[in-house]
């Protein structure tokens, strides 16, 4: 192999780039790697990249894996709102009633700390996975990637391969071009509208939503939100695509803080590939294994050249690795010139993953947040009680010369079933509830119930004393809520 690109006087990897390409070289780990790996240099060929990216269709093991994950998540996204549980939509953010139903559990605005713990746990899980697998979320799980590839598939079926799409962009407007472009955008709009319905189905009952939308029979606000998210889908997946990954997504910007020298990322093996250059099959050459076919750039959703080194624009989808493996197979070379690897692996070093403070720290943080969530969920009550005192008088004396206090109770049934409740005090012999103590409350409703409590026996204290009111479920006495209040007297 010709090592003319190797310069022993360098102590870093040098990338010879023009002004346009300089901004593409982004992140590298602060971890130290071997001296040999640091001294590589890459000659970069200047290539005029079209302003609009039309990626070339690519098959391979990573693309099959991505398609499986994307298809599963898309089906799951549309199917979840139709899951029924106990005669109701299993998962529903009901904004009108201000409640979130998750199977048999109902969360109210005051319970949304539970959702906060879920989001925090998800963030730490993402960080934990990123330390090991890099931007695996972006390449295989991100909705932006999934819907972008759906739109690209539609575009390819209607307008043809990437070369034909580039040619169609340059062609003058004629009936065939108008037909193709119109069919593509109508298909995109239909997918966007269905996606808007799928998203709003998490907030309004899904069974009737699709029929109402396509029959133009929705309420103003439901229809407005459906069309708003449809427009967002159409713009993001149809027009912006890689721009969302390059300029809008914050994850691309702060991912470098989570990488270390053992993070797996799509990596070009410069030691084996350089110096690159075209050649015929089975031709003897002193060049490296890279045949400079440019396929790794043609199939990249963000239009980068992975041979320039690790870049923040890379979404780790593995399309370039599949394209390179296909080319290596045709030329009879070993596959893996572009592969998932880490800095230490490329340098021939082995480091114990469990000694990485980032890896261990994010893992422990994820477990800790999950534990807090579990405790918070365990302490969640199915009944809510608020006690409001009568503001007109602290106390009054009735016809039997007994002291009584008036209260207004606000009792909410936070379950999804109608319930019967019993009202009591912790001092039944001293304080008597002079109102009906058995209450019926419908599922998810709040009952405003005025009561009067009478002091039935003398007490030693003067002025006021503490009083505890209890509301408990008659069918399950373990479900109860208690709240303290004051009982005033002369």
Helix content: 25-40%
Structural class: alpha+beta
Mean pLDDT: 84
Radius of gyration equals 33 Å
Number of helices: 17
Largest sheet: 5 strands, antiparallel
Number of strands: 18
- The backbone outline, from C-alpha atoms, is elongated
Low-confidence stretches: 1-49
Task: Tell me what you see in this structure.
This protein is of the alpha+beta class and 490 residues long. It contains 17 helices and 18 strands. The strands form 6 sheets. Strands 10, 11, 12, 14 and 16 form a 5-stranded antiparallel beta sheet that branches. The longest helix is centred in the middle third of the chain and has 26 residues, at 175-200. The N and C termini lie far apart (101 Å). The model is unreliable at 1-49 (pLDDT under 50).
Write the layout of secondary structure elements.
Elements: E1 14-16, H1 19-22, H2 35-38, E2 41-43, H3 61-79, E3 84-85, E4 88-89, E5 91-94, E6 99-102, E7 105-107, H4 113-133, H5 136-140, H6 143-159, H7 162-170, H8 175-200, H9 206-214, H10 220-240, H11 242-248, H12 251-254, E8 265-268, H13 270-273, H14 295-298, H15 319-331, E9 338-341, H16 343-346, H17 357-378, E10 383-389, E11 396-397, E12 403-413, E13 419-425, E14 431-433, E15 438-441, E16 446-455, E17 464-473, E18 476-488
Parallel strand pairs: 1-2
Antiparallel strand pairs: 3-4, 5-6, 6-7, 8-9, 10-12, 11-12, 12-16, 13-15, 13-17, 14-16, 17-18
Helix pairs in contact: 4-17, 6-8, 6-10, 8-9, 8-10
Which key phrases capture this entry?
about 500 residues; alpha+beta; five-stranded antiparallel β-sheet; four-stranded antiparallel β-sheet; 17 helices; about 20% strand; elongated; disordered N terminus
